[in-house]
Amino acid sequence: MGIFDGLPVPSDKTYLREELARIDESWAVPRFDSLPHVVHIITSKDREADILLLREQSDVVEEVVDEVVHAYHGGFNKAIQNYSQILRLFSESTDKIGDLKHELGEAKKSLGTRNKQLHQLWYRSVTLRHIISLLDQIEGIAKVPSRIEKLIADKQFYAAIQVYLQSSLMLEREGLQTVGALQDVRSELAKLRGALFFKILDDLHAHLYNRGEYSSVASSIYERDDEVPTTTAVAASRMSSQPLSRRTRTLKGDSQFGVRGLTNGSHRTGSTEEGSSFDGHDEEDSVEHDEATGDGQTIRNGTDSKLLSYQLPPWLSDSSPDEFIEAVRKSDDPLHVKYLQTLVQCLCMLGKVAAAGAIICQRLRPTIHEIIISKIKAHMETKNLSKSACSQGDRTGAAGLHFIKGQSEAYRLSKDKPQNGISNSGTHLAVSPVSPLMAPGGKAQAAAKDLLDSILDTIVKIFENHVVVGELLEFRASQHDINTPKSLPTDVNWNPDSDASQATGGYTISFPLTVLQSECQQLICEILRATPEAASADTAAQTAKLSKKAPKKDKRDAPEDGVTFTFRFTDATVSISNQGADLIRQGWGKRAPNSSQEGYGSAAVLPEQGIYLAASIYRPVLQFTDKITSMLPKKHSQLVNDGLLTFTENFVKDHLLPTMFVDYRKGVQQAISSAAAFRPRAHTTTYTPTVEKGRPILQGLLAIDLLAKEVLGWAQAMPKFATDLVKYVQTFLERTFERCRTSYMEAVLEKLSYRLIGRHDIERLMRLDAASACLPSQLGHSVSHSEAVGSEVELTELFLSLPSIKQDNLIRDDNKLILLASLSDSLEYVADSIERLGQAVPRAASQAEGNSRNQATSPRNLASFADEYRKLATDCLKVLRVEMQLETVFHLQEMTNREYLEDEDAEEPDDFVISLTSQITRRDEGMAPFISGEKRNYVFGGICGTAANASIKALADMRSINLFGVQQICRNTIALEQAMAAIPYVDGESVQQNLDRVRTYYELLNMPFEALLAFIAEHDQMFTPTEYSNLLKVNVPGRDTPPDAQIRLSEILSH
Predict the structure, then answer these.
(1) 306 pairs with which residues across the strands?
(2) Greatest CA separation for the chain
(3) How many distinct structural domains can be found in the chain?
(4) At what angle do helices 785-800 and 760-768 cross, to 10 degrees?
(5) Is residue 54 part of a domain?
(6) Helices 858-892 and 760-768 meet at what angle, rounded to 10?
(7) Of 160, 192, 220, which closes a domain?
(8) Given this model, what pLDDT does residue 175 score?
(9) Residues 809 and 942 in one domain
(10) Of 482, 569, 611, 683, most Cβ neighbours within 10 A?
(11) pLDDT at 498 over 50
(12) What pLDDT score was predicted for residue 739?
């Protein structure tokens, strides 16, 4: 870009730009040096030409200059004119300023002569203005009492205190102290201070117990529990993951109002589990909800419970802006917390904290007592309403079922009847130490839990408010000015005390916690009917320990019955100022009678009271303690260590568990020691698999099962003590097993069947038997068909090889056999129940057992008991099976060493067969109600195999047999087959095959020798060589048997 490119050259003279472009830029440098150009021309060969070129370039430049001047000429002229005008105006201004200075000098001289008079006039105007202002103030102060009364009526307490403090300051001014007309105003303000204090205190008291307009509870605490509120209440944040103390911990700021933390929004009391989260609906909506209830109780939806962070709560709408109001406006705390903060701030501004704390302490216990009574009355009204609404059918409460959690087995009471209408008399032996109402899951337990849950839930919500107020007061006490009214001269009666408790009138967080737990403990003791022994030595030690923290004990709190309670030591007995004591005497102390000595009336709500209700009380107390602990600040966290939970746990450990063990041990002893405990009773002819339909479980074992379920029901209610309760059950089961073992031994002692099942070879063969698959205990692995058949044959051979069986070796009493059958089924029932109970044992018991010296967990211990019970049940069935097989051998052994030489056709079986079949029928009918069909098959299923083998083997010992003798034996087998066919569930096909084999075997005796050999040649595997040989050895009249018969038989069988 050239140096001449920016020149304003007209478009019709563009050639000038070309000419300028030819000019060397050295002519346009800032410091032009002409010498090089002169030398160039002098030394040039064509000087004329160079000079002519320079002249042409000069003409071009001059022409460009003319164009530039022509283009900027108008602007230059205007600029010169403007400059001239500026110079003219400046000159005129200078002249006028000089004139003004001269005039001011003249004015100064004139005013100086009247200075004194002007000063007097100015002073008079100031005085008159001040008098007018004082008159306005006097007029305004005269209206202050009515204004404060209006603000009090509108519950604008903070604004009323602001007006009061401002008016008090005005009255202390020097000019107004001597005004006589204001003395009445001073007197009225003094009265209004007391009235304002009591109004604030009343409102604070109402909101502490959730009875106020801005309380977090949706409805009155007197409302019945069964009534569903129309809107969702603001939750009490007892389940909040953050400690509730944070809401007030953030108040400890650096401003004079101590509200720096109100703006950070770090605390929310809404519990997500109760649908009480706060959102940002505007103030008008909240006010509309507040005004919608005319009974003084504000019911607002959870979505309307939180004001927007930039909106002011309605109770501060008439207040003058200050730091506290600004902090409240920016705070994210719930509405009821902000209101409590405002009331505490009002008390601090009035300097009445100590008096308020003392009165709150004085009223705390009677109010809590009244609240608990009201809750109980509400429950009673609910109960009456529900009774009137329900029909009068369903009167089976006394005969209801008690269920253990996770169990489907029914617990029947002593007068229960199953569905078939037959009395389950076994439960008469249960001798449960508790009534049906008091049993686990009973109506009394459920009623006590519901009642205590409701009361403790109310107490938790109340304590939440006390935590807010308590932390605020403790923080303000640290400022050492809470009992001095703000902006007022110090009153000697309200000098701050160095002790924070003294400064707050004895009211600290620990005080309401102790009183609340004390009242709850008294209620629990009433529910449990606690005797003086209920206050154990440990409890007394706790009382002594905690009482050291209190200034003194109030004598009026001593219980009438002499029971020493843990918390009865900290009523409003702290040392307070004279003014605080006067305030208490003025009326608050007289408003509540000494109701703490009265009962709560829980008996009207609970169907029954007693020590066993501790089981239903334990869990609500545990949850209550967890909620309280989550609310407490860290520095107060130790307050719950010696609280209600400790008392309840000590009561359970020191009183309930020992009582329970003694009572249930007595019940177990009565159940198993009764003569009828092991007496089989059946009211049906067939077996039913469920107790509800009449399964004839032995009364003693049924009672033990019911008692064990009941004890484990207590373990479900009190998981922490489940280990001890499970040990109780193990002790009871062990005693019961020994008693069952004794009954078993009484039936089988010195009997052959008992001795045989104890032999290892017979036990092994019985385990291989296919029929053993139905036994309660798993006796072994699965076996093949050939192994099962071989074991049955071998087992029969062992029985037949025994010496001659005598009648004394057998169990001849059918009642003992029926007892063994019933005992087996009952033991199996109890074993199944034990297994289910073991799975339902609380984890606490399992973990506690795992940490104990014995590393076996409770379910495994209970499972071992189930195995023992099943093993004994199996032994009973094995004895029954062997006994019937021995009975068969005993009766059929009469076939040996005799001659079957009959002279006529057999019409009736032999007497011993008749005896055997009648015995089988009789015993089957006796056992039928007590054992299932498959077990009946096991008991009687071995008879046919044993009878068949015994009949075939008896031929070897027979001397002679003829055709009618063969018919007689066949008639015997037919009679036995008919008897076995009458038994349900017995394998009829197997019975027929075994007895057909006997008939076939004996009918071979009717064949001629040659025909017999031909049959043997074709059916060499049907019988053993010994059995075929016995066919030839026996004497059969009319059959010709050659001398070499055995040799020829051997030759046939060897091929």
Answers:
(1) 280
(2) 188
(3) 3
(4) 140
(5) no
(6) 100
(7) 220
(8) 55
(9) yes
(10) 482
(11) no
(12) 92
In a domain, 252, yes or no: no
Question: Whose CA is closest to 602, among 374, 394, 821, 804?
Answer: 374
Tokens of 548: 């050291």
Q: Are 381 and 505 members of one domain? A: yes
Q: Is the same domain home to 624 and 701?
A: no
Say if residue 315's pLDDT is above 80.
Answer: yes
SS (H, E, C) 71-128: HHHHHHHHHHHHHHHHHHHHHHHHHHHHHHHHHHHHHHHHHHCCHHHHHHHHHHHHHH
DSSP string, 863-874: HHHHHHHHHHHH
235 in Cβ contact with 274 (< 8 Å):
yes
Looking at the DSSP bridge assignments, the partners of residue 281 are 307
Please name every residue paired with 960 in a beta bridge, in sequence order, or none if there are none.
Answer: 899, 1035
Chain segment 625-650, per-residue pLDDT in tens:
999 888 888 877 777 777 888 898 99
Identify whether 396 is part of a domain: no
Q: Cα–Cα distance between 284 and 294 in angstroms, integer?
A: 17
Q: Measure the CA angle with vertex 299, ends 293 and 301; round to 5°.
A: 130
Q: Which three-class secondary structure state does DSSP give residue 1020? A: coil
Same domain, 377 and 509: yes
What residues make up the domain containing 214?
138-220
Query: H or E element: which one contains 899?
Result: strand 899-900
Going by C-alpha positions, the residue among 453, 452, 457 that lies closest to residue 525 is: 452
562 vs 585: CA distance, rounded Å: 30
* Strand duo 899-900 + 960-961: pairing: parallel
What's residue 181's pLDDT?
Answer: 55
- Angle between helix 443-477 and 335-350 (nearest 10): 40
Kindly state whether residues 624 and 762 are assigned to the same domain.
no
848 with 722: CB under 8 angstroms?
Answer: yes
Task: Output the CA torsion sign for 1050, 1051, 1054, 1055.
Answer: negative
Determine the average pLDDT of the residues in 3-9.
63
β-sheet bridge partners, residue 961: 900
Of all helices (H) and strands (E), which one includes residue 307?
Answer: strand 306-307
Q: Judging by DSSP bridges, how do beta strands 306-307 and 280-281 pair with one another?
A: parallel
Half-sphere exposure of 534 (CA within 13 A, CB side): 25
Beta bridge partner(s), residue 900: 961
Alpha-carbon distance 1047 to 39, whole Å?
Answer: 169
Same-domain status, 612 and 705: no
- Residues 702 and 836 both lie in one domain: yes
Query: Whose CA is closest to 998, among 1018, 1036, 968?
Result: 968
Look at residue 1035 and give its three-state secondary structure. strand
Distance separating alpha carbons of residues 658 and 649, to the nearest angstrom: 13
pLDDT of residue 233: 35
What digits encode the pLDDT tens for the residues 570-588?
333 333 444 444 443 343 3
**Residue reference for tokens 């405002």:** 342
pLDDT in tens, 778-803: 544 455 555 656 677 888 888 888 88
Q: How far apart are CA 701 and CA 732, in angstroms?
A: 11
**CA torsion angle for 271, 524, 621, 711 (degrees, to 10)?**
-130
Structural contact between residues 807 and 683, judged by C-beta atoms closer than 8 angstroms:
no
Q: Does residue 618 share a domain with residue 742?
A: no
Other beta carbons less than 10 A from residue 385's beta carbon: 13
Q: Is residue 265 part of a domain?
A: no
Total Cβ atoms within 10 A of residue 993 = 13
Q: What is this structure's pTM?
A: 0.67
